[in-house]
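ESCALATION

Customer reports they have been waiting on this structure for their group meeting. Please prioritize. Original submission:
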Amino acid sequence: MRARPETVLKTVFGYDSFRPFQKDIIDALVAGADCMAVLPTGAGKSLCYQIPALMLGGLTLVVSPLIALMRDQVAALAAAGVDALFINSSLSPAERELAEERVRAGSVRLVYAAPESLSGGRLLSLLDSVHPRLVAVDEAHCVSEWGHDFRPEYRELSRLRERYPQAVWLAITATATERVRADIASTLGLKAPRLFLGGFDRPNLNISVEPKAGALRRIVAFSLSRADAPGIVYCGSRKKAESVAEALRAAGLAAGAYHAGMSADERTTVQDGFIRDDIRVVSATTAFGLGIDKPDVRYIIHADLPRSLEQYYQEIGRAGRDGQPSECVLLYSRGDVVALKAMMGQSGEDERPGALDRLDAMRAYAESGRCRRAVILEHFGESAPGAPCGACDNCERGDEGQVDVTVQAQKFLSCVKRAGERFGAGHVIDILLGEHTDKVARFGHERLSTFGIGQEFSRSQWNALARALLDAGHLVREPEHKTLLLGRPAVAVLRSESPFFLPAIVAGDPGPAQRVSKRTRALQRGNIPGFQAEGDEAGGELFQKLRMLRKELADAKRIPPYVIFPDRTLKEMASIRPASLEELAGIYGVGRTKLANYGQAFLDAINPR
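Update from on-call: job pushed to the front of the queue and completed.
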């Protein structure tokens, strides 16, 4: 008789209840239905295929993009008593031979492999000998050219569908718009897949956008204020990743840099140090993080603008995967957009489908005065909450971080109208600034009443205002010639019936109306309101004692500390103080194998004789 999902969840993994959508996905896969799941990072995506793997029997193939991710998941499964392995280029010939023997013997339940490995005959020959019952494609957005992290080798996975037609399939990711989802399903050949959209909101993440001025000093101050908390600083270049790491180390923090210019051994050393809590903060390019299964990252700082909201959402999703409060800060300058466009043009990246549109959506997010959560949710096609979220900078500071630019908005809209709605933003700004250009002279626009009336704003401020008016629908861009037209809502602004505001970060410094938000001042001091550093509650000294024990046990086994128990488990131990193995078995995350392997050591630490 097949075990129930709830039984496997408790006895193997030590959890009492499923998170949203997990049980539905598991039931569908066990019943033989292909599935596509878009679940936020931290929603427990791995259990969606690990539990079916144990229930279905036979072999489950997990296609995973990075060696580090495979290694961590296999270590976590081994700690829970599940026979799993990975096959990739990190194995020696002898190790690979041993792994293949274990697969052929029939005891292995999950095999993790990179998509590149599946193009070779050796691995396919091995799989032919056992025929997978389930194929799980993790980070499935990599399949789509419309996604932010397209990988051509992922598109070759469709051949597995032809090779193993009886296998049930799961495509799972944290980021996929409707267009990307359709491309994934078509490319992988999913059969009438059941779709599970778990929502994109991460309520435990406090998100904010702050001015980039003094970035290095502020990054150091922020990190110092939570020196015991793991964090990641994302940088746009290798050089910056190195300089940030150097500054953090100079301040006394255990920090490391990570980027593609380092050797494989150097990258592995930094990544392992971070996972095992020997390094507390990593400054990295986007090369870092996709393969990190570390649940207790407490903060993410973006020192430079990501190329898309999809990339940004995925990267901030590496914080707070354990559900505990975590902080995400983006340091923004309008110059980042210009620099990224130049880089994309030089590399040809701007020719990829939707690349410039994705960058523009990222820019609009950074410059928005609306609830940050609302902007993210709407981008992914999800309804935004009606009330302020209370956990983003815009909702927290309300009007304090806004600048009234109604007069400037009226000037811009009026200039568009008086110029005949036939020109782009650049020419309109030339008129407002009183520039005697050839184009202004050719059309006689120096005679317009709006000529030279906008000199209180710089060109960059006028450009920011134009973007905001477009985003709000007061302006509409004619698609063929890129000329500006007045939108329907513009009438209310021109008649002074509706005020218009810009976030201070966008408006720059138009005058005394601008005020620095509480969050900006807090970031400058390195102290974000509402943020609690790890270990500030739930047992205090005992919690720290259990963390030290966990680190000792993990180092002895050469595995990440969180593989033994996550922080939430240690906090519950410190709060409940179980006195027996039976009581300890009731704690979150304590399955039967971990209870047998580690239970007595933690009981002795909680109840010293």
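Sent to customer with the following note: The domain at 406-499 is CATH 1.10.10.10 (Arc Repressor Mutant, subunit A).
Escalation resolved.
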